[in-house]
Amino acid sequence: MKKKIFYSIIIFLISFKLHSLEVTLTQGTIKPTPIAVTNFYSKDDKEVKIGKNISMVISDNLERSGLFKPIEKKAFIQDEESLSNQPRFEDWKIIKAQHLIAGKIYKKNEKISVEFRLYDVFSQKQLLGKKYETSEKNWRRVSHIISDAIFERITGEGGYFDTRVVYVAETGPKESKQKRLAIMDQDQANHRFLTDGSYLVLTPRFSPNSQKITYMSYMTRNSPRVYIFDIETGHQEIVGEFPGMTFAPRFSPDGKKIIMSYADPDVGNSEIYILDLVTRISSRITNSSAIDVSASFSPDGKKIVFNSDRSGRRHLYVAESDGKNLKRISRERGSYYTPVWSPRGDMIAFTKQEGGQFYIGVMETDGSNERMIAKSFHVEGPTWAPNGRYLLYFKEERTAEDGSGGESSLYSIDLTGYNERKIITPLGGSDPAWSPLMH
Amino acid sequence: MFHKILYTFFLILFVSACSTTSKDTADSSGSGSSGVFNSTSTTSEEETAADSGGIEPGSQEDLIVNVGDRVFFGYDSAELDSDAKELLQAQAAWLKQHNKASITIEGHCDERGTREYNLALGERRAQAVKNYLNGLGVGVSSMSTISYGKERPAVVGSNDDAWSQNRRSVTKVN
Questions:
Q1: Phi-psi category of residue A187: left, alpha or beta, with phi > 0 → left and psi -120 to 50 → alpha
Q2: Residue A41 carries which DSSP code?
Q3: Which of B113, B115, B117 sits opposite A431 (nearest CB)?
């Protein structure tokens, strides 16, 4: 008898161990590559300043990726003018730079011409050289485009620096939070608010050309609906004519459709619909008495993944985009939410809840190889960088009884669970969405 | 005869619902975690004591003080328990008494769920209340629903007590 109890305790301990989720770092510690990012050279004083700024933006981008370690500029031996003619590789070897970035700026009438070269210091070879002509005020955009070119050449992965982030900026006490749509470059520059906070806004997402945002808003009193917001003009329109709440919208990869949930006011149950923005015809995709929400298209537009409690628990399901061939893909314990298909098509990121904790996880599209990459009291809403290698999500702290705490902030993380960083925003932040590449 | 029985039945329900309400109010005051909520209910009680004639019949205040405007739900559930049903029976009686009243039923959730799922769950809760009231004879056309998901908690705090008070429906007189 005693033995039996002893065994059951052991079994209990083992199963407990097995079921506690761990955040796994699949690559261990990545050693960032030392890189020398020099100030872009110019003869003109005004352009000298731009040359410094371009270098700074590129250096910060590469550092944030977690794959590069920019070397401090005061360690540089060769000056920019001499470097603009020919690099002395010995000077860069001494300071252990593996890669070297040099650049030049010329003034050309009203425009500037920005030229850069990427060198491999040890093989003493130029890996890449490009030139861009643009107006001076576009120097930041050019810096991101150059960063992408460098990142792509060295890592073999797609770039992701010339992108923007739309999110919900939050202020005020938890029971009456003011929420505003806000947009910024991925490095937090050019931050601006798109709505004034007089109504609640939730879950913004970019169109494939990054010109529009679909989101859910309580703009019309007592009628929360999905809207499309034109970033350029500020014009807004309701998506479809539904007599009840529409929510959880996302664009299709071709930008011609919106997939979202609709709660029929006579039934109160949420089903997934696709609205064709050209024909204005809506089609119902799911048909069950369960909650069906948070749908996301695969990058080829042929499949969808969504969240449903039809099994009695909240799980993830994949189907054809017309709802046929439905399959549950999540297999483990806990509740699954907000699945998002990776732009590369090979993975699905999601929010998971288990044992009083929330996680950001990734799995393959058939549900295999589930892995947790971030964990907290509350994390939610992953969104992919266009290269499918980085994610943004938001984290909310616990709220104390006196109302303190409860801050919500944006975070970025590498797909492997490495390099988690807080994104500094002027106010609190939630519901981030990463844009596709702008170039 | 039948009508008389029905009337008595509702009267009994109405009285018992009132006692439920005061219990609920005491519960929420006991938590001490929401300044707004506390001060509202305290003020209402004082007003009732001092001048019960100050409340306009059929108003939101009347509903809060004399019936109760909200019912509570279990975690990830839109099921109405016996307490909720009892209070909704009183709401139905009150609504019929003031048959001019049209209402909006708000559905709310606690913070433990995603924004999108909770919008759906809040709608489901509001609908459960609407259906139950409709079964008691309240016309569908006088009722509308709205979900706030986890966006508008009644009580702040990441603890069981706050969560149980935030999983609610609130009946609002339009």
A1: alpha
A2: B
A3: B115
- How far is B151 from chain A, CA to nearest CA, in Å? 7
Q: Which of A118-132, B25-39, B157-171 has the lowest mean pLDDT?
A: B25-39
Q: Which residues pair with A274 in a beta bridge?
A: A259, A283
Chain B interface disruption, residue of A199, A205, A316, A399, most B CBs within 10 A: A399
Which of 162-221 (A) contact B at CB < 8 A? 173-177, 200, 202-203, 216
Q: Which helix or strand (DSSP H or E) is residue B143 part of?
A: strand B143-149
Q: How far apart are CA A214 and CA A240, in angstroms?
A: 12
Q: Which residue matches tokens 């089609």?
A: A283
pTM for this entry: 0.87
> Six-digit token pair at A240?
């479809």
Q: Which chain B residue is nearest to residue A315, measuring alpha carbons?
A: B117
Instruction: State whether ipTM is beyond 0.90.
Output: yes
Interchain proximity B32–A401, CB inside 8 Å: yes
Task: Encode pLDDT of B49-88 as tens digits.
Answer: 445 568 999 999 999 999 999 999 999 999 999 999 999 9
| Minimum distance, in Å, between the CA of residue A405 and any CA atom of chain B | 9
| Residue B127 to residues A78, A276, B118, Cα–Cα distance (Å) | 72, 28, 14
Tell me the CATH architecture of domain A33-155: 3-Layer(aba) Sandwich (3.40)
| Phi, psi for residue B38 in degrees, rounded to 5 | -60, -50
Smallest Cβ–Cβ distance between B146 and the set A224, A338, A380 belongs to A224
What residue segments make up the domains of chain A, in order of their start? 33-155, 164-434
Q: Average pLDDT, stretch B27-41?
A: 36
Beta-strand runs (E) in A40-98: 68-70
Q: Which superfamily, per CATH, for A164-434? A: TolB, C-terminal domain (2.120.10.30)
Sheet strand arrangement including A357-364: A335-341, A347-354, A357-364, A371-376
The pLDDT tens digits of the residues spanning A122-138 come to 999 999 999 999 999 99
Domains along chain B with CATH numbers: 52-173 (3.30.1330.60)
Whether residue A434 contacts residue A165, with contact meaning beta carbons closer than 8 Å, is answered with yes
CA distance A201 to A275: 21
Smallest CA–CA distance, residue B12 to chain A, in Å, is 31
